[in-house]
Amino acid sequence: MQWFIFLYTLLFYYITTTTGERIVFGDKGWDDSEDEKIDGNIFHNFFHDSQSTMTLELDLFRDVINAFLNVTESAKDGNSNPMFQLLEILEPIKNLDISPNCISDIFYYGYITTQYAKTVSENRACKDCSCQSNVSKYFDDYEWIFDVVDAMGKVPSAVLGGNNLWIGSWHTCKKIDIVKNEQQQRWKGQYCKLQFQPYNKNNPLAQMASTELPDPTAQCKSNFNASEMNEWSEWDKQCFTMLPLINFGICTPDTCTAYDVKTMLEFFYQRAESFSGSKLICNVDVTCSSERAEESIAFDDTSMRVVYFLTTILATIIFGTFYDIYVHQPSLENGSSQQIDNWYLHLLLAFSIYTNGKYVLAKNTVSDQIECLHGARVLSMMWIILGHTYWYICTSLTADNVLQTLKNFPKIFHNQIVIQAPLAVDSFFLLSGMLTSYLFFKKVLAPKVDSNGNVIAKHSINYKRFSFWFVFYVRRYMRLTPVYVIVMILNVTVLTHLSSGPFWKPIEANYCRKSWWTNLIYMNNFLLQDVEQCMGWSWYMANDFQLYVISPLYMLLLNFNEKLGIVACIGTILVSSIYRLIITLLKGYPPGPILTTKLQIVGLIDEFWTNVYVKPYARCGPYMIGIMVGYFLYKCKLKYQMPKWKLYLAWCISTVMGLYSVFGMYGYSVTGEITQFHLIFYTLFGGPMFSLSLGWVLFACSTGNGGSVKKILGWKAFVPLSKLTFCTYLMHPIILQLYNFSRPHPFHFTSTFQMLTLFSVAVGASFFVAFFTACAFEFPVTYLDKILFDNKTRKSIPLEDYDKEDDTLLNKERFQTI
């Protein structure tokens, strides 16, 4: 009910301010704080431009919120006139496309409120004890009408600091559940969050890079003429969705759908705009949550099918684990040479959490394996989780001081580690390219030798056959896609019912229903870029798969002619860097996804994401470097000696390049200003320098030149975690979003220690969930893949493939790209 009071008061305010004297800021003016000036400018831009006369004033907040309270206070005082007036204003909604039950409950609320007011008036002089007792009981029974208003959003503190979360009380609304009549019909509270979105014309981020104050004479200029909207560009007429004008919580009857609420809101705010002559609100995004049975998971057919599927998988895991422990493992301990020929038994063993768990926890490594790869992979994964811990809190719009935090965050030097977290993705590209190259040369292009070491063929595998390339690409697709699809399905079905709260919304349910097929063909970084992407973080997997597809061209060139192959790799890196430079200069992009105190990247994030961040031709540099590193590791057979002075020089250069890539933009982050030379230099060489630095670290550690760094990256504790990084990458954004959207109150950034605590919890939870996800979906697919495509295991699984010490199936090809 309170949203009608809000709009009614807003309508009244428009009328009075456009015909009478306008309220302005007090004589004290703006706060002396530089941050307050900038924040005030941001909110001013929401309400004011050269064509509009509306300004943001704290008196407006006060008047609107007081209107909510005045109606209910009048009822408490026995005055029903304000409610009767409101019911007259609400009369037109009967003609709107709104469900009858919703309208009925709205007017029921008004009726009960007027009856409450009449009862107060009639019993004001009641002095009899019995009378007072009856009246008191009547008041207690109808106290819920004030809970409806109490649950609505209120003006919070730090409005000028960017706090637009007027969310109210979700719990107060949800507890409202009363019987309306003798037919036992109920009036239940339903919490709805309204996000008022302005037009792009009034995009506040367009001027966020400037600290100039709003023009104080702008309100004296000619009023907005509705016909002038026809002169707006198509972009101006679109809705600005990145940062809502206000997030406002209301309590409605659960008989009202989100469509009903939006229809009523549009009716009233469009009337308000017609009175004021201003076009301010482009759209209202309404998200409602209720406890209606039809909204539970039991009534979601798709989600229930997924639950049945998960139940089947769980039963298979339990049965397979029991078979493995009580039948298969004893046969191994007894030295039985019996081989497994039954496909059903293979399937059971593939899902055994005992064997899969022991594989994860085993710290033993293969002799010719790149040991430091495990540490690099795990640390890169943690770096990504660190960056995403900040990213998802900010983009979830659940923090009440996000604007202040974004502006102050770059001023702290060590925060560059968080700001430059996208470089961790470059390390994944490098690791993927390096591993693909190393294994391709080692398993395919290496000479085939007999048991005596004599060369019997030029290559281990005849790569000129079509069947080889079919298997080369199909195995890659089959190893990545099943668990990817399972996580996607869970994300849009079961997980949408997992929690509730004022910020809760189904995680990407609508996006994945529209663009899921682009993910399945690993083209989601090209197709449907004009809509929200399904599992936005999966852009990396699309890039990695696309680069994997073209990688044989470079590896075969290196094998045919080393110099030509190196020239091709370096040429691709240069072309990629030049593309980034050209588009950066033409579009006015920053040198990278770097946060500054002027927040330039915030206003350009959509364009930068589409044109640069997710495109393989802009991200292929690290992958090409990885291909060359893998080739050199194969050539030197993981052993390489060099003079100490060259070794020290290489480490010094590598360290300088790595530190520059991470911290070299600190000055730009603090000021938001960068020279043309520095912009060009970092755009061209910032990313490649980081990849070269990491490439040297991996090469040195793998060839016996790593010293203490090799001991760190080769730490055995990294081996189990390294096997889980693929599932961790898929699951960690979901876990972070579940946390953000499940909070009952807004988040408030306080300190680095606070965020490190959240980061630690996120890392632990992500790897924990990844363990069960991998054991249930990833490892079984890997096991079955080996049976399907490996000639030896297609026939049987010999006992020699089991490690005697750990009783664990050793899969030498169980490398992961993430």
From TrEMBL:
GO terms for molecular function: acyltransferase activity, transferring groups other than amino-acyl groups. Pfam families: Acyl_transf_3 (PF01757), NRF (PF20146). The keyword Protein biosynthesis does not apply. The keyword Membrane applies. Residues 126-290 form the Nose resistant-to-fluoxetine protein N-terminal domain. The chain crosses the membrane at residues 306-323, 343-361, 373-393, 417-441, 483-504, 537-557, 564-583, 616-634, 646-668, 680-701, 713-735, 755-777. Keywords: Membrane, Transmembrane, Transmembrane helix. InterPro entries: Acyl_transf_3_dom (IPR002656), Nose-resist-to-fluoxetine_N (IPR006621), O2_lipid_transport_reg (IPR052728). It comes from the Eukaryota. PANTHER family: NOSE RESISTANT TO FLUOXETINE PROTEIN 6, O-ACYLTRANSFERASE. This is NRF domain-containing protein.
